[in-house]
Amino acid sequence: MSKSSEYSIDPGWRVLWRDLGVSWTDVLKAAALPEDLLARESQTLSAVEYFALFRALESAAKDPLLPVKIVERYAVESFQPPLFAALCSPNLGVACERLAQYKRLIGPMKLTVRAEDALRIELRWTSVIERPPAGLVLTELAFLVRLARIATREPVRATAVTLADADAPIAPGLSEFFGAEVRRGERHSVTFSREDAALPFLTANAGMWAVFEPELRRRLMDLDGAATLRERVRAALLELLPSGRTSLGDAAQRLAMSARTLQRRLGEDGTSFQAVLDETRRELALHYLQRTAITSGEISFLLGFADPSSFFRAFHGWTGLTPERARGTSADRS
Asked: Is 200 within 8 Å of 221 (Cβ atoms)?
């Protein structure tokens, strides 16, 4: 099964489920999933497994307002990078456009954004034969409302909510949360007024978005199966560098191959691990210097250097410039 039809798993769910008063081991057992699932690194589930997991959670919680409880207890800041990146947006309209582009990094879902007289976001599942649980659909729609409220610190209300599931029960409290009656419709959707869609996000951060964007684009390439081995190594390094893990062995472990195999395959592609590492660091350094206000010392840390002086020497070797001169050159061009 391709990764585009799988859900990524967040270990933070253990905390969420505890807050909801359910046993995560019981939920996993009821869904016929391994009890150590949430302790595994980079674990994914098929859509069928994920739907079974959500239904098991619904059964354990026995709460018709579970979608609301999930989004209210699970801080948006704890979600995965595509969702955190949405918080960096200037407003809800832009945030939804970004989510529409990168949502499938989280699961086989697609957002369609229609911005005419109002902002309407339609949600559908891709590469999935089985119908998703209605509670999961409502959780996804409720998240967008919660995102708007957290980012603006305003009581944003939806103007319309539709659920394309004729059989699913709709708890009265759901309409109270959304601010609009949840109705049956042809699409799963939530709509906001044009005014609310344009409210400025107090969490807007152009610098952080500039940091997130390259990583998200590369992850999307890898998901599409279009990434070369060099690009896969670069994507792995984006995650490894801030922790100081810069060795061939670290990258090979992340890519589930031996160090010898990785080096050999890179050689067959006409490059080497050191060349990819230097290229990735150089491009990231220029990106940080030209598009953010991050200091050289912080950049040194993000690129996995032992100390700022090592970064200074390496950067000068790559570009013939000092980091601050590179930043100043960019400002001059602007």
From this structure: no
Q: At what angle do helices 273-291 and 323-333 cross, to 10 degrees?
A: 50
Residue with the two structure tokens 């491009």 = 283
Owner of token pair 């598009």:
291
Q: How many CB atoms lie within 10 A of CB 41?
A: 7
**Are 108 and 125 within 8 A, CB to CB?**
yes
CA distance 21 to 106: 25
Q: Which one has a higher pLDDT value, 198 or 76?
A: 198
Residue 226 has pLDDT above 60, yes or no: no
Q: Which residues pair with 46 in a beta bridge?
A: 6
Separation CA 320–CA 109 (nearest Å): 45
**In the predicted model, what is the mean pLDDT of the chain?**
85
**Which of 108, 115, 81, 86 shows the shortest CA–CA distance to 99?**
86
Contact between 110 and 103 under an 8 Å Cβ cutoff? The reply is yes
How does DSSP assign 252-280, residue by residue?
Answer: HHHTTS-HHHHHHHHHHTT--HHHHHHHH
Strand-pairing partners, residue 192, are 119
The rounded distance, in Å, linking the Cα atoms of 58 and 68 is 12
Beta-bridge partner residues of 125: 109
pTM of the model: 0.64
Encode pLDDT of 164-187 as tens digits: 987 778 888 999 999 999 999 989
- The domains found in the chain, sorted by start residue, are 3-197 (3.90.1520), 228-333 (1.10.10.60)
Structure token pair of residue 310: 């090592």
